[in-house]
Design goal:
Helix content is 63%, strand content 0%. The protein folds into two domains: 14-60, no CATH class; 64-104. It has 104 residues and is mostly helical.
């Protein structure tokens, strides 16, 4: 395990960004910026490696589940449908995903 000390890093600092990078929750532009930092900042690269080690095993424990066969056609139909209010569109997407056991 990494010997990085996380006790004195301010909230929102490098450990948070590194963890978000490893979890894949950053926007594309942020992800690109972080990838560049990993290349040029060895200390930050160590931080990312720490979080990869800590969080990497979670994905190994999740069993793969195939979506229902009709899922993509229903999503495509919902996208191609005439524009509606955002609340209605979101509700439709939630119904499509929940009917197939998918989480949004």
């Amino acid at each position: 395990m990494s010997e990085t000390d996380h006790s004195d890093t301010p909230e929102g600092g490098d450990p948070i960004v590194a963890g978000e990078y490893v979890l894949g929750v950053l926007e594309a532009s942020e992800r690109s910026t972080v990838a560049q930092r990993i290349e040029r900042e060895p200390e930050f690269a160590t931080e990312v490696a720490f979080w990869e080690e800590r969080l990497g095993g979670f994905a190994d424990e999740v069993k793969s589940v195939a979506p229902p066969e009709a899922a993509w056609s229903r999503i495509e139909a919902a996208i191609a449908a005439p524009a509606r209010s955002p609340a209605l569109a979101f509700g439709s997407l939630c119904r499509i995903c929940s009917s197939g056991g998918l989480l949004v």
